[in-house]
Amino acid sequence: MVTGAHIEVIAGGIGNSIQDAGRFGFRHMGITVSGCLDTLLARCANALVGNSPDCACIEIRAVAPALQIRRGRVRLALAGAVGAKLRRSDGSVIEMPAWTSFTLDAQETLEIAPLPGGGSAYLAVAGGIDSPLQLGSRSTYQRAMIGGIDGRPIVTGNLLPCSAQRHREYRENQAPPWSYIDGPMRVMLGPQAGHFKPEALATFLACEYCVTPQMDRMGMRLEGQALAHVRPEAADIVSDGVTPGAIQVPGNGQPIILLADCQTVGGYPKIATVIAADLPRLGQVKPGETLRFAAVSGSEARQALLASEAQWRAWADRMVPYLAAAAPLYNDLNDIATDW
Fold first, then answer.
1. Which residue has the higher pLDDT, 3 or 53?
2. Are 58 and 171 part of one and the same domain?
3. For 51-65, what is each residue's pLDDT tens digit?
4. Do 80 and 121 fall within a single domain?
5. Which value, in Å, is the radius of gyration of the alpha carbons in the chain?
6. 340 inside domain
């Protein structure tokens, strides 16, 4: 691998940004972590192209982008409920599925399909997207205009620097789709559970809450049976630290789940916090879906995190190489075995 490739964004889409593992160590300065909403899915995409888990990739959130290789030869992979079309320089078009790596030459174009209904998907590039590091991360945090390209989601005309393959390689990687366990979002109650009536805690754990369209990388608003505070003034607290996964409840009693781009402090009481093992699942939640919650202990949360890591490693062990068609780049991807 040598440096020297460029990918041009020929259609920016909506809501797509450069993200990596996040920007840590600056929360005391009011700088949020950011990073990929679905960290496990991003790790899958990076693994398919041989990257370390913390390499910067493109997080696809709404209307997906179209990209053209402007210089060099680049290996890419998609992870998520997403597909794409490879438009070659001779005008031919090939369907490119997720969960397999593929290599594009200069002037070839990748047109990524929109995500069905929302969620997150990831496009990884071998070697990672080499946008400038800011405070140790390439993650885009739009509210502070840092990271990514000029601190913004990608837009038409952006050039994304990355590594290029020196020689044509025909060995690619493929893996089964990653999937999450079903069931309620697991939470640890508090730290301000005492600000809520006992019946509110019971309601929170017994009822379904609908995800509203009011959601972005900062958080998602839910709608359902209101959670009553012990008294009206208990709906406010002296601002204290918040973290992704914290569930705030303002005066209207409707929960708000904070996500990767959340602020570092907040003044609403928190009824619970989504455990680390289930945080990536929040990156796949779509407007109109319903969520349920289940309380777990600190020990159970730790065991869940260990189980999640074991599940991801088992997925990685099922990734296999295959020999792509020698020339042209791919003759028929339907010939690739996909029986898992």
1. 53
2. yes
3. 999 999 999 998 999
4. yes
5. 21
6. no
